[in-house]
């Protein structure tokens, strides 16, 4: 495990929010780091994992410093990274297929925060040709961007994030080319992340989206369902939720265009190549050493047709 000591980079304003909303201070940070480190050394299946102090604090903030939830989420995230090779192996952003996937711009965090200091992420499930790209490659590239974002954006683990899902271009081929089981696994992993979105805002929706909407909501826990908002083509409705000023020019805002954001995040991921490939190796559980019964994919996800819902909160 990394011995690099955690030092917060947050502004005093955001640190005050962490204190008032999470009960965080320097003593509590150091205390939870020590407890989690010791706990991980006592779990045979987690002993090989290299989780640095920054990551521990990200989990702690996302779990509001509940030690029980921190332990559950760390174990679950690493277990899922091991059980989902379709998403978390081959993490070399310079591979041609990943290069092409990154160039699509399917997952684009904005550079500025909204009026509530939240991180804003744009997801574009219809921005690529589903007959030319494997959905696993798109998802893999998206997870690489997400990891890179989390590594450089400490604030979002205090103030939270919101998601904009731009459905423009989403077609029946997108729906049929991605197996339902793969989509379910993706949703399950996202709900196990250190933080969950405050809202998920769907824009530029179409008939295919509306056909799939009920399928999507059935994969979410009740807490997440309440955070869904469908704006359609009404950007004025979107602006009430997210500050128009920070949005891309494509949405009537003053921020970088979707094309520029795509280039920016592709470059960021390429620059993090070594750390991304290292995380692939270091964030894997050893199921042969798990106390009790090793967890299989079926144990985690259930059999097809009876997919398990995740309820941690």
UniProtKB/TrEMBL annotation:
GO terms for molecular function: phosphatidylinositol bisphosphate binding. Gene3D superfamilies: Alpha-tocopherol transfer (1.20.5.1200), CRAL-TRIO lipid binding domain (3.40.525.10). CDD domains: SEC14. InterPro entries: CRAL-TRIO_dom, CRAL-TRIO_dom_sf, CRAL/TRIO_N_dom_sf. Residues 95-259 form the CRAL-TRIO domain. It comes from the Eukaryota. This is CRAL-TRIO domain-containing protein.
């Amino acid at each position: 495990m990394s011995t690099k000591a955690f030092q917060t980079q947050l502004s005093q304003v955001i640190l005050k929010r962490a204190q008032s909303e999470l009960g965080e201070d320097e003593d509590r940070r150091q205390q939870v780091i020590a407890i989690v480190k010791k706990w991980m050394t006592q779990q045979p299946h987690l002993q090989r994992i290299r989780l640095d102090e920054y990551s521990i604090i990200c989990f702690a903030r996302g779990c509001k410093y509940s030690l029980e939830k921190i332990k559950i989420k760390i174990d679950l995230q690493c277990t899922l990274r091991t059980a989902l090779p379709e998403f978390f192996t081959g993490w070399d952003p310079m591979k041609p297929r990943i290069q092409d996937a990154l160039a699509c711009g399917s997952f684009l965090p904005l550079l500025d925060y909204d009026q509530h200091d939240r991180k804003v992420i744009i997801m574009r499930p219809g921005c690529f040709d589903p007959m030319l790209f494997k959905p696993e490659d798109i998802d893999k590239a998206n997870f690489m961007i997400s990891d890179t974002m989390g590594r450089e954006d400490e604030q979002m683990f205090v103030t939270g994030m919101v998601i904009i899902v731009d459905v423009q271009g989403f077609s029946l081929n997108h729906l049929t080319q991605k197996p339902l089981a793969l989509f379910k696994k993706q949703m399950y992993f996202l709900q196990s992340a250190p933080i969950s979105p405050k809202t998920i805002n769907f824009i530029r929706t179409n008939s295919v989206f509306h056909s799939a909407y009920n399928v999507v909501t059935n994969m979410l826990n009740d807490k997440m369902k309440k955070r869904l908002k469908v704006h359609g083509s009404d950007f004025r409705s979107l602006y009430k939720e997210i500050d128009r000023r920070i949005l891309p020019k494509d949405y009537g805002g003053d921020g970088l265009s979707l094309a520029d954001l795509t280039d920016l995040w592709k470059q960021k991921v390429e620059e993090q190549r070594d750390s991304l490939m290292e995380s692939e190796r270091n964030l894997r559980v050893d199921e042969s050493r798990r106390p009790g019964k090793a967890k299989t994919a079926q144990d985690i996800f259930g059999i097809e047709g009876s997919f398990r819902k995740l309820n941690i909160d």
